[in-house]
Write a structure and sequence with these properties.
It is a single chain. This protein has 264 residues and is mainly alpha-helical. It has one domain: Rhomboid-like fold (Up-down Bundle), CATH 1.20.1540. A three-stranded antiparallel β-sheet has the order 1-2-3. Strand 2 and strand 3 form a beta hairpin. Helix 5 packs across helix 7. Pfam families: Rhomboid. GO terms for molecular function: peptidase activity. It is an enzyme of class 3 (hydrolase).
Amino acid sequence: MIPIRDHNPATRTAYFTYGLLALNVVIFLAYVPMFSDPRRLTGFFLTYGIIPAQIEAGGAYGTLLTSMFLHGGWMHLLGNMLFLHIFGDNLEDRLGHLRFGLFYLACGLGAGMIQVLADPGSTVPVVGASGAIAGLMGGYLLMFPRARIDIFVFLIVLVRIIPVPAWAMLGLWFGLQVFNGLGTPSDVGGVAYWAHAGGFVLGMVLMVPSWIRAGGPAFWARTNGHPDNPEARYRFARSPVPRVRRRRAPPEISRVPRVPKRKG
């Protein structure tokens, strides 16, 4: 299941979100040539990625920041940028540009530290904006739990775009991070599940003051968990009008006698 958009349009231009999208892409393109040289690429990630063992030993704290703008491949980059685009603009609209930027950085730095605490002896470099973006997802869930999100479902014979509430999609995603984090040995590289789960929870916690200012439970009661601005309507949204099947005409009506052609 891949989220492709939400029905929660922002009321102002999300300059910081677009800036983050551009910055991540530009940085990735700058070191793309290294992918043809694995040794050089590994050295690059060892220098700028988070190495929990180094952080635990009291050094390389700057990598908590630099790692947030590095990605391990095209799919890693595109997946993160898709989630950033879907969930970032609404929180920037809610928080304002500066507060959103601080919120994003705090989630990313906190998620990195949570991964260090979860696996302090690891020497595998951790890179990616996933922890910060997980924080956006946690904040989004708190503010708009019933906002509609369109997901692309591909199950062999089933290919469809369906709308689901944010709590269902984000709750499932969070549950998978915790499940995979518990089931994956700490010495196995791949995905930093605890950075994802930790960033998600941290984002929810950091969003609480804004939720309270909006009214807290009263905000949910007023909006019923939906965005507090009109939802977007898309071309492929499901129509509320039921489909009526076309009925065939009875045989005695559909039969028309054939008139033979005349010659001459």
